Amino acid sequence: MSISSDEAKEKQLVEKAELRLAIADSPQKFETNLQTFLPPLLLKLASPHASVRTAVFSALKNLISRINTLPQVQLPVRALIVQAKEPNLAAQQDSTNVRLYSLLLASKGIDRLSLQDRQQLLPLVVSNISCLTGTVAARMFHILLKLILEWVAPQESSHEQEEFVQFLQLDNDGFSFLMRQFTRFFLLVPSKQVQVSQQPLSRGYTCPGLSLTDVAFFTYDAGVTFNKEQLNKFKKAIFQFVCRGMAATQTIEQSPRMIELMEFLCVVSTDSTNLSDDAAQFMKRFPMPYENEEFITFLQTLYIGNTANGRPPVKAILQEKILSILNRSHFATTKAECISLICSIGLHSSEYKLRSLTLSFIRHVAKLNYKNLNPASSSPSSTDFSTCIVSLIRNNLHAEGWPKLQLGPQTPAFNTAILQRQLQYETLGDILKRDFELVSDLSYIEFLFESLKNDLPQFRSSIQESLLSLVGHLSILPQQSKLKLKNLLRKNLSIDEQQREDNNDAVNSIMALKFVSIKFTNAAFPFHDPEARLFNIWGTVRTNRFDIIEESFKGLQPFWFRVNNASINTSATVKTSDLLGSHLSETEFPPFREFLQVLIDQLDSEAASITRKSLNNAVRFSKQCLISNAIYGKKTMVIQDEDWSVRIDKALELDDTVVSRVNEMVQGMNDDIFIRYLTLLSNEFTATNSKGEQIAIFPYQDPIFGSVLLTLLNFVSNNVLRRLEILVPDLYHLVIMKFQSLSDNDLAVCATIIGIISTAIADSTHVKRITKIAQSQTMAETYVASYVVPRLYLKDQTNHIESDSILNLLNILTTHLSHPGTNKDMILKLVCQVTKFGLLLQVSAQERKDFLKKVMDTIQDKLINDVTAIQTWSYLSLYSTDLENSSLFQEKLLETNVSKQNDFLFSVGESLSVVAGKWSSKYLIKQIDIPNFNVEIMQQKFPATNVTTILDEIFSGCDSTKPSLRKASCIWLLSYIQYLGHLPEVSSKCNDIHLRFMRFLADRDEFIQDSAARGLSLVYEIGGSDLKESMVKGLLKSFTESTAGSASTSATGISGSVSEETELFEPGVLNTGDGSISTYKDILNLASEVGDPALVYKFMSLAKSSALWSSRKGIAFGLGAIMSKSSLEELLLKDQQTAKKLIPKLYRYRFDPFQAVSRSMTDIWNTLIPESSLTISLYFNDILDELLCGMANKEWRVREASTSALLQLIQSQPQEKFSEKMLKIWTMAFRTMDDIKDSVREVGTKFTTVLAKILARSIDVEKGVNPTKSKEILDNILPFLWGPHGLNSDAEEVRNFALTTLIDLVKHSPGAIKPFTPKLIYDFITLFSSIEPQVINYLALNAANYNIDANVIDTQRKNGVTNSPLFQTIEKLINNSDDCMMEEIINVVIKASRKSVGLPSKVASSLVIIILVKRYSIEMKPYSGKLLKVCLTMFEDRNESVNIAFAISMGYLFKVSALDKCIKYSEKLITKYFEPTSTENNKKVVGTAIDSILNYAKSEFDNVASVFMPLIFIACNDEDKDLETLYNKIWTEASSSGAGTVKLYLPEILNVLCVNIKSNDFSIRKTCAKSVIQLCGGINDSIPYPQIVKLFDISREALSGRSWDGKEHIVAALVSLTEKFSQTVADNNDLQESINHVMYTEVSRKSMKYVKKILPLYARYINVNPQEETITFLIEKAKEMIRLLGSESDDSEGSIKQTSDESTIKRIKPNTEITQKSSKENIENEEYVINLLKVSVDICNNSKSRYPMNLLEFIIDEIAYLFHNDRIIHTWRTQLAASEIGISIVGRFSTISSADFIQNVGRLWDQTFPINCNKETIENVKLQMIKFGGLIIQKIPSLQNNIEENLRLLNSIDSTSRIELELKNIGL
User: Fold this and answer.
1) Are 495 and 614 in a shared domain?
2) Alpha-carbon span 1722 to 1768, nearest angstrom
């Protein structure tokens, strides 16, 4: 077959390329050829001709073999990658092979590249990587992995990191592609198949989270496989590359890149390597995007997997991570399909944690988006999903063991299992709570009840909570379910826990079951359901837990039942009034008959035990049902509020409506159930029958049975009573057999019941037996007879009673009464029974009279304190017509007023009503307990006779001044009107009664007030319309008019006139120590004795307050009672004047500090004013005026109430209403803050706080307030706040509050306050000193007295200013101000700094200057001069802290000052330092100022450095150590190089020295001299000659004149100069002569003290240039000085001795040689001489011409003098110095020949050795002497023998190892 020309051509090209590559004979050539030919060769793989492609493949095979053998050869990697991305081919050519082989060889080449080269390839590889497809993309991605494998991450948050991100140039598509693949790579797991090298790669395996295609991308398509180690290496590299490279700079929340990064980190955070921790930490840097759709969808997809592309769900650990995120996402609850799959996967998982998280997720969805758990909203494929979930959870619970958890091998750890099961129960509850359909068939409720009963205790609370969450559904259950629920609850509540007492857990489970059951009962069934109420009654069994009992009683109390049910109503919005129960409505009770039927049926059933145990509460509830049924829909006192229980208990005693309604109802009852019920009550009451058999079924005693039975018998028909005859034997048997053991109450109840039944069966044998009374019968029989016979008489049934039986009964009673051993109280009660029903009318008048007398005689003395005796006495009075002295009855009763017991007095009141009204008294009428009795019969027999008489007596008691009688009379009057008010004799006197009660309202005794108030309401009820009107008006008048009227007897007169004898206080109320104040006269006397007539008014005010106004409860009670029933609204509408007076006062009284008063007033307000807010709005101005007026009242209670009321008022009304009176309000507010009374001040503070907030709101321009209006308000208020009522007030509290208010205004309303900035800054600065506590000021002034450093206190005071909120406020003001205010602000700051007195204000001024400089640096320039001047002026302040503060401010000011100003004030600072009057403080301040300038204005400092640096240099040598430290610090910071800086500023330094070294201030001279010395150390010969001469001139001139303390420093300076510039001095004869002359002059001075100091300096000077005459002069002066040294001390010692002789007062220690030797003075003299001699030795050693032998002799003579004189006693110092001087003298020469010199040295040895060779001499001295001897032996042989002999002698005297060693060293 012929070959086409194209094919041949191409083939030829391939062969040529192959040949070129093959003939390359070195690796370098091979590499070069590869760079050229390899990419084009690979392009030929796209040839359409198979032969060409085959040739290329063949060539490649050879090439690759050769490349493999040459590892150093580099491949053209970049060209290959470019070619792989965009091969240079024709459009129709297939580029696949070209790309793949290019990448294959590129991948090989990468391994050979350096790290740097690899990094350079990264941008190329990642660019457009997202556009590549299939295998090419896979291989390119693998190349990227290889490139980043050894990539070195840049430093975190560094510039390099940012540069790297820029370098990558990654677009959004590329970023997304890489992040997607990197994330998937972390899901990759190694293949389990072992890969053999020859075997082709496997393509078919999946990983959790990755499909076949995904896995193939990383392995098959890329042509690689990974083992675990390689995989981990790549993962690590990827993580580094992503987090510290590619995505390092992602900071924008919710951006796509950030979301992709978070997806990546989520996956990595569960990786099996330690990268998971790093990823978790890295994630914390960013907020989790819980609500980002893309992010959440990605996680859901990972969790669920994808069936469409075959991607399985991820591993469980990652699923757990995903769920923990979904559990916090709202968006995750919005996709129903995803939710169903997530829950299904999680609940079917074998992983415990995943199951738990799934349960949490279900709860999360149920809470936020329940409908998505609901099948209706799910897709058709997941129908019934919600049901499916709960079924799944229930199945799981069954699988784990149900109803009790079973632990088996499959169960996780115990704690884990417990937690998960708890979560399952809670999740079940969450779902059921939201899905009524699941609850309606009760199957889950049954399931949970069973679990609660039987599962482990650990789950109890979870199950209970789940059950209780369902109560909202129960009321809407279908009827069938409700019946089922009722059976379930009946079963739960009737469980007898006592059978399982041994198992505590079981008992607790039953209790939990019962608690939930009671909750269900209350929620599911209406209140009128008798069975449900019976369940509640079962819950009250006393063996139940307290919470069950409490919940059960709530189900039996209609108020709490309503409140409870309102709170569990989940379906509708519930009113707050219903939740609080404040809106009262009437709840219907179960019908009485139905309830009885249910109760009796239960008692007859098999499970009767629970009913029996709760029978007492069943009976109690049955009584409540009866009453409630009877009065349903009627107005009575039984209101269903929280006190309903008390109301219903007392209703039959107090409310006639209730009695009549119940009577009607009970009269119609005659059925068997009712009789059965009454029999049951009787059986429970008697407990045993007449045969002694037990008939009670309730296990305990309870008086309720007897009490209810008696109550019912009061109303039943005669027919019923006759049917109850069978009860009489048992009841009679109870009294007879248990007479001694029964309580009085039970006896009375039992006898009364027998008495009532007897009236219907008078002819029965039982009654006949009881009424047949014999003298000999027992007390028990008498007891019953006493109850039965009088009732039979009432019913006119006595014809069956034998005539003597009644007489026998009376005789028995009188006999027992007179017998000492009997129970008198019981007998008297029987006498009451016999007498009150008129039985005595059955016997003859004489017999009656005898009986009455006997009883009266017995009880007459007991009346004062015995209630029974009092009652008996009143009943005896019924027969008073039979006695001569009938008035005795009332007299005896009236005498009981002395009693202090209120209850007793009420009993007397009841008795008085009987004495006065007989059977007309309501009290007596209520005693009738026989059904349907006509009381008029008795009223005819016992007509009322002396009603008026006794009423007049009571009036008289009311008007009495005797307190006890008044109190008793008040109570009696109340009883009188209560029980006899219906009689015309009483109602005709209503005016008088009303007046008495009005007066009692003013009584101090709260009980009397309450009684009087109640009395007023009763009077009001019985009065006519005219009376009612006048009463209301009178009360209002008394309430609104404060003036005390004259005495009045009309209905309106409350207060009487006060005369001298009017008793305002009970004795002892105002005890002063001298007796008590009882009358007006006493008050006058006391006031005049104190000398303050004004006290009279104070006491009068107190009296008024005590009587009426301070105890308004009385009037409030009265008002409340009257007003609740009167049409006061009409009255107020008609009478505007009254309304205007009453409403403001009443408003104020609502806030009275006394709770009782405020409570009563609030009641009145609520009663009187239906529309409170409307009324307040209408009468706002009147109320405001009343309150402002009240705030200034002299009575503290009025002030406090007014303030509290105003506080409430201004908070509830718009500001516009009171804006005009704002100043007045503020004034009064501040006045209350300074009140004398604590409580008023407290309320005042609250009030002003609220005012401040209102003010802040009203001026807040930022919140939209009109700026003009805001300014107008502030124009009014601010002058007030900073005026005499505010900041300048005398009261500290007011000042502080005004300040706080201003600070708050600045803080919260900066815009509004801006125009007032300058004034406020001035006020605030000056205020600093005022608000500083006085104690600190005192302490600062008296610091020395307390040993405290005043500077320390001042520092604290300064810190206090800086940290003060006030200063921060100033700062805020400045920050908010404008440039245009600058001049004004600066002027006020200058003014404040000048006018301020205290330290804090001055310091504040300086700090404000600093703030101004910082904030307005440019604007400040024109004012810098003024401010610098202020600073300089403030340097003169007496307080150092103030000086320092302004010095620091000066530093800041330099920053904004012009150069001329800087120079001017720099020079002023220099002048200030060198002033002759300058103190250390001044110098310190100057130093601080310079330091501040250096720190805060560096460039300005540099401009004036030539002014400052000389001063700093000189001041570094100040005598004061602190100053020296300060200036040294400044010098160090200011000078770039020490010596260089000195040279730089030397001319200026010399100028300053020249001017100041002759200063009048010697300390400055001294400082200058020290500076010269320091200069010598800092300069050298290179400085100009004129400057050297100038230095000498300065020093010489300074020495002219007399000697002064410190002049020696100038001498030292001159000597230092001479030493430094010795050559200059030697070359200049004139200079040398002049210095010689000056030195000679100074040494020749007469002041020996001065000469002593400069003599060593003179010796140093001679040492520079020794001359014979100067040496001779030195010897002369030195000798003279040494001889003088001891003489001073001799003189002083002489004087001491003399004193000692003259006086024996103080003993002086004897001045022995030892004490003198160690004295300071001796040591100083000795050291001085030694120093002088050593300097002299230096002169000898430095002599350049002839050796000064005379000086040597002088030295040796003086050493001898030191050893042997008695003025300076030598010590070891001289001994040591002698040897050292010897060593120095001998050691200078190598050989010594001078005989004089040798002689002198010998003399020195001879002087030294004898002194030093003692045993006592210290070792160091001896060692030094041995060295000296060794030198002599070495240099002067002629003295050798003598020396050696001496040294051997020394060794023999005191031989030590060190001495022996030293001797050995010198050859001995």
Assistant:
1) no
2) 6
Does residue 541 share a domain with residue 504? no
Q: Which residues contact 1146 (CB under 8 A, 6 or more apart)?
A: 1161, 1164, 1165, 1168
**Residue bearing tokens 């609030």:** 1162
Cβ proximity of 215 and 253 under 8 Å: no
**Do 1621 and 1751 have their domain in common?**
no
Residue 384 has pLDDT above 90, yes or no: no
Most confident among 481-490, 1687-1696, 1793-1802 (mean pLDDT): 481-490
What confidence tens digit (pLDDT) does each residue in 330-346 have?
A: 888 888 888 888 888 88
How far apart, in whole angstroms, are the C-alpha atoms of residue 1726 and residue 1418?
Answer: 67
DSSP-assigned states of every residue in 242-253: IIIIITTT---T
1786 with 1823: CB under 8 angstroms?
no
> What CA–CA distance (Å, rounded) separates 1853 from 77?
97
Question: At which of 1258, 1289, 1308 does a domain end?
Answer: 1308
Contact 986, 1023 (CB under 8 A): no
Q: Count CB-CB contacts under 10 A for residue 1171.
A: 10
Judged by DSSP in three states, 210 sits in strand
Which string of DSSP letters, residue by residue, matches 687-727? -B-TTS-B---SSS--THHHHHHHHHHTT--HHHHHHTTTH
**Residue 1737 and residue 1618 share a domain:** no
Q: What is the CA radius of gyration of the chain?
A: 59
Domain total in the chain: 6
Read off the DSSP letter of residue 1055. Answer: S
Q: Please confirm whether the linkage preceding 76 is cis (ω < 30° from 0).
A: no
Let me know whether 366 and 477 are in one domain. no
1600 belongs to a structural domain:
yes
pTM over 0.70: no
Q: Which residue has the tokens 């990587």?
A: 129
pLDDT of 1322 reads 82
Give the end of a domain, one of 608, 639, 667: 667
d(CA 656, CA 768): 35
Q: Which amino acid is residue 1087, in one-letter code?
A: A
Same domain? 335 vs 375: yes
**618 and 531 fall within a common domain:** yes
Tokens encoding 95: 């580029």
- Res. 1105: pLDDT tops 70: no
SS3 594: helix
Residues 1050-1078 have a mean pLDDT of: 37
Look up residue 1429 and give its amino acid: K
pLDDT digits (tens, 9 = 90+) for 942-951: 888 888 988 9
Task: Determine the straight-line distance between the first and last CA of the chain, rounded to whole angstroms.
Answer: 124
pLDDT tens readout for residues 925-934 = 888 888 888 8
- Can you give the residue range of the structural domain that contains 1147? 1134-1308
Exposure string over 661-700, b if 16+ CB within 10 A, otherwise e? bbbebbeebeeeebbbbbbbbbbbbbbbbeeeeeebbbee
What is the largest distance, in Å, between two alpha-carbon atoms of the chain? 176
Hunting for tokens 């592609």 — which residue is that? 177
The DSSP output letter for 1516 is T
Is 1321 exposed, middle or buried, given 0-12, 13-18 or 19+ CB atoms closer than 10 A?
Answer: buried
The DSSP output letter for 585 is -
Q: Give the number of residues written for the chain.
A: 1868
C-alpha neighbours within 13 Å on the C-beta side of residue 603? 19
Residue 1082 has pLDDT above 50, yes or no: no
Q: Are residues 1153 and 1205 in the same domain?
A: yes
Tokens of 988: 């005709």
Percent of the chain whose pLDDT exceeds 70: 82
Alpha carbon distances (Å) from 1275 to 1248, 1282, 1307, 1318, 1375? 19, 12, 18, 14, 22
691 domain-assigned? no
Rounded to whole angstroms, the Cα distance separating 1321 from 1317 reads 6
Q: What Cα–Cα distance (Å) separates residue 777 from each residue in 771, 780, 1187? A: 11, 8, 77
- Helix H or strand E segment including 1369: helix 1365-1376
Q: Which DSSP category does 311 fall into?
A: B
